[in-house]
Design a protein that fits this description.
The protein is of the alpha/beta class and 134 residues long. The chain is built from three helices and eight strands, in the order βββββαβαβαβ. The protein is globular and about 40 Å long.
Amino acid sequence: MVNVTPMLTDNMQVIQCYDKSRFTIKDINYTGPILVDQENIRHWDIESNVLWSKFDLLTLEPIFEAKQKYDILLIGSGSRQIFFPPSLRLRIREQGPVVEVMSTAAACRTFSLLLAEGRRVAAALLPIGWLIEA
């Protein structure tokens, strides 16, 4: 028999569940937007009525300031997927990571999967109850 259980360590910040306004990671609830990587979770200071047209590198500055560098940056855009303009994707890529924007539900699942694979991944997650204006 082959064991296919992912190798997870106690310090990994696996997203257990999410709902309209919060996330549960390691049995702790976090309300509102969060930034999460393998070892850290922090509040993401972004307003609930953010417009993607005003979204820029400054909005993601806490990710880029981290000591750890990431190969992949997942952005959970709330209840539905929103597409970034190619120019912003390129500017993020110049900072290091490939960026993937998807619904928050998909970003949570993808984050945990990539983390289990040992990938260097970070996620900027908006609660699924937030409605983002394009």
